[in-house]
Amino acid sequence: MIKKCLFPVAGYGTRFLPATKAMPKEILPILDKPLVQYGVEEAFAAGLTDIGFVTGRGKRAIEDHFDTSYELEHQIAGTGKEKMLEGIRELIEHCTFSYTRQVKMSGLGDAILAGRTVIGDEPFAVVLADDLCMGPDDGVLAQMVKLFKQFRCSIVAIEEVPQDETNKYGVISGEELSENLFRVTDMVEKPDPEDAPSNLAIIGRYILTPDIFDIIEQTPPGKNGEVQITDALLQQAKDGCVIAYKFKGRRFDCGSVQGFVEATNYCYENIYLKK
What we know:
By secondary structure, the chain is α/β, with parallel strands linked by helices. It has a single domain, classed as Spore Coat Polysaccharide Biosynthesis Protein SpsA, Chain A (Alpha-Beta Complex). Helices cover 32% and strands 26% of the residues. It contains ten helices and 13 strands. The protein has helices at residues 35-45, 60-65, 70-76, 86-94, 108-114, 116-119, 140-151, 212-217, 229-239, 257-270, and strands spanning 4-8, 29-30, 33-34, 50-55, 96-101, 124-127, 131-134, 154-160, 170-178, 181-189, 200-208, 242-246, 250-253. Strands 8-11-9-10-12 form a five-stranded mixed β-barrel. It has a two-stranded antiparallel ribbon with strand order 2-3. A hairpin with a 2-residue loop joins strand 9 (170-178) and strand 10 (181-189). The longest helix has 14 residues, at 257-270. The mean pLDDT is 92.
């Protein structure tokens, strides 16, 4: 069974400056909850209770969030506001949190490799908190965990994007196994629209087998001089098997202001107003 989930959270969040000058982008709130908490809740709902973070300088607020605040909790004890902490208390009670640092920003592949110390030799999930995913029933990770039990190989979540936006994503092509499943045969990081092998874009949900670490170590820098997880996954697909899954649900790119606003409006209408 998969129990571990890795969150690469070392990025600078430059698209949200100046808000992210002194505040991690992952702590930016969607309504009354930090963005990263949605991701941890999705992992927890999928049965993943060992949560690892690859952090960087200025990310201490993430550690503080997933910890007890004795002064605050003393002040609101016995009041109606105490109920507002129930969600985060459940995560703190049932999950373990580990932290390591990515000293230099060298791409997602390098960030995942930095997480090897907290993952070990086990299959694991990766969540990019920028991508807020809302599933109709099961969350995206829960859907992928079920698939992993069947295929026992690395799995990436994909969705169709406009052809002129392929240069924002890793893009796959592959052999269609069923309506929403593909065996990956090609994978390109941020291709120009005319060079993209399809419009099936990888979003921030992965399940990876532990041999990916050795592959990343042998992967040279690619697009933008960074170690790209797409390059490592393509090698893994050539050597064995990587599955791409067109998930059920909706994704919001909260790394952009437009996506952040769309996510806020969606959560307000579909979660907050229905409480």
